[in-house]
Amino acid sequence: MIELRYEKPVDRVGAIDLHGGRGTARYLGGGTNLIDLMREEIEQPSLVVDVAGLSNEIEARDDGSILIGAGIRNTAVAEHRAVRSRFPLLARAILAGASAQIRNMATVGGNILQRTRCYYFYDSASRCNKRIPGSGCDAIDGFNRIHAILGASPSCVATHPSDMCVALVALDAIVHLQGMSGVRTIPLMDLHRLPEGHPEIETVLEPGELIAAIELPALPFARRSTYRKVRDRASYAFALVSVAAALDIEAGIVREARIGLGGVATKPWRAKAAEQALVGKKATAASFMAAAEAELADAAPLSGNGFKVELAKRTLALTLGELAGDPA
Ligand code: SF4
Q1: How would you label 162-189 residue by residue, b for 16+ Cβ within 10 Å and e otherwise?
Q2: Which of 93, 127, 194, 195 reaches 20 to 30 Å from 201, CA-CA?
Q3: 228-275: pLDDT as tens digits
Q4: Ligand 1 contacts CB of residue 158 (under 6 A)
């Protein structure tokens, strides 16, 4: 029996005080990942601070931006009228992410901080640097069909599992943080770390720091945006490849593009090389495939996931083509 204390504070300051930056304390959102991890004894906190009831507002501002409280359930975000009209790629990413039951429980903050679904991470009989630093990684020479082809290191090749984060990274979302030393904001793109030599350190959060909200800056052309997810089965599964994309096209020329990739990288992946390759180019199928080639040029597949390179290119080119009205 593992002793566990559960606390439900009335505000964020109380939550941060209770947590106190202790390594054995965890914030609890909807519990759709943390409870699984506790059942498997991958996570063994002595204190759980329930923050799901805090930060529950969505503020659609007149300037086109939206502020989303971190305690909001995923369903509420996906169904919000302003989210659906201003940032359809985000609503679609959330709807593609999980069943209605999971979406009704999962919170925005918890979704962002969910942990990898690498099989070996969940199997305590396997070597896993993320679970036990320095122990090795059984995925690298093992069954690695679902693992990363971008952003990996010799220490860890696990993918980040969130669909929502792929849309958020494409939208230049800003994370509002609150901790023991005050409040700060950082780009979502900088929140998750690459594994490098320390895959056990997944974010730049300070001990006890809490995600308070996510801000989506105004992006008028995001009304022309979408999310496409390729997975092993039509019912809910994690992505093999996913693409969040928005295109600004005028007179057949791409003025700006925003692209995120999921299922292929160790963190929510902003496809900067593809974006840069598209600016000023004709919105044609050839341009879209050239952009996809540029993004995947540094892909490093493992023994079992080489198919992801071509799958990612084709999925990205197809998604951009759809947004552009399927040009030749
Ligand atoms: Fe662990 Fe990462 Fe290796 Fe999976 S890929 S076994 S999470 S170190």
Answers
A1: bbbbbbbbbbebbbbbbbeeeeeeeebb
A2: 93
A3: 999 998 878 899 999 999 999 999 999 999 999 999 999 999 999 999
A4: yes
From the candidate CATH numbers 3.40.630.30, 3.30.70.80, 1.10.260.40, 3.30.390.50, the one assigned to the domain spanning 224-323: 3.30.390.50
Question: Which string of DSSP letters, residue by residue, matches 72-91?
Answer: SBHHHHHH-HHHHHH-HHHH
The atom number, within ligand 1, closest to the CA of 127 reads: 6
Do 103 and 32 touch, CB atoms closer than 8 A? no
The chain-wide mean pLDDT, for the chain, equals: 95
The domain 5-52 having CATH identifier 3.40.50.150: the answer here is: no
Percent of the chain with pLDDT over 70: 99
Reported as type and span, the H/E element at residue 187 is: strand 182-187
Which residue has the CA at smallest separation from atom 7 of ligand 1? 121
Rounded to an integer, what is the distance from CA 25 to the centroid of its chain? 23
CA atoms within 13 A on the CB side of 40: 14
3-state secondary structure at position 34: helix
Write down the residue that tokens 């800003």 correspond to.
Answer: 174
Domains 5-52 and 224-323 alike in fold = no
pLDDT digits (tens, 9 = 90+) for 286-321: 999 999 999 999 999 999 999 999 999 999 999 999
| Ranges of each domain in the chain | 5-52, 224-323
Q: Is 312 in the pocket of ligand 1 (CB under 6 A)?
A: no
Sheet containing 47-50: give its strands across: 5-7, 47-50, 25-28
Pull the structure tokens for residue 306. 């080489």
Q: Is the CB of 315 under 6 A from ligand 1?
A: no
Say if pTM beats, i.e. exceeds, 0.85.
yes
Angle at 193 between CA 187 and CA 196, to 5 degrees: 150
